[in-house]
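[[Per-residue structure]]
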Amino acid sequence: MKMIVAALLIFLMGGVGSIAQPLPSGAQKATQRFPDVIAVKIRGTKETQIFDFDVTISSPYDTPARYADAFRLQGEDGKIYGERILWHDHADEQPFTRDLYGVKLPAHVKFIVVQARDKVHGYGGTTQKSPIPGR
């Protein structure tokens, strides 16, 4: 009888020694995968303050709504300095690289964080923090 009660308690608690806890603020569920930025290449000069970006993204899903549909460039000051909308799901080319040309970055911006988004989850996933050449 004690074994049955113990087994029932374990079942009700969700497993041995654990009770389901809410996710902490900002945490993502294991099933909630975002598109990931896996590489960033930056070209430009500090004299012109104009830079070109090649961004490589990997999207793990097989439906158009869950593939990366945009990426953005955010400075350490929190401002968004560029965004590119991607007009199709890139299902047949994973990972894929897209560019963003002619981004003007003020002299105080020393690095850029590149983030990707999908239509279901928004921005999230793995980002790349890249130093600006010559700064």
Remarks:
- The beta strands are 36-44, 50-58, 68-75, 80-85, 96-104, 111-118, 122-131.
